[in-house]
Amino acid sequence: MLKEISFQINGKRKTLKVESGEILLDVLRERLNLTGVKRGCSVGECGACTVLIDGTPVDSCIYLAIWADGKDIVTVEGLGEDGEMSSMQKTFVEEGAVQCGFCTPGVVLSATALANKKQSFTRDEIRVALSGHLCRCTGYKKIVDAVEKEMEEQL
Ligand code: FES
Ligand code: FES
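Above: inputs. Below: predicted complex with FE2/S2 (inorganic) cluster.
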């Protein structure tokens, strides 16, 4: 059954009809062309499909689109301004925390949500905050290095 939903996506209001069983990942990728949202495992294990919903990282592969009604959603395409990467994205590049990049949009979004708390976190706490993300390339050290450096700079 189709249901009309309305939400904020990367700062813009969007209204569209979705099937009751449609997942948010498909709506974002297939209908809104936001392909920075990656499909990995499809079962909530890898974090590649992470988006921010009302500021909290969520696996969009296990989130029904109808639940997005009234929410504020940010994908990696919504970070940065005027075609410039966000400060967190730049630090990932500078620190070599990106290799194939498949996991990166989700990791950067979770790291951004953590940095937005404006508190200091230990490396172990950063690891816990990013534990929902699987990366097959970087071995995690450079990711944690980048997040730690960026968070220190933002405090
Ligand atoms: S694709 Fe959603 S958690 Fe893996
Ligand atoms: S950079 Fe390749 S999966 Fe993380």
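The domain at 87-154 is CATH 1.10.150.120 (DNA polymerase; domain 1).
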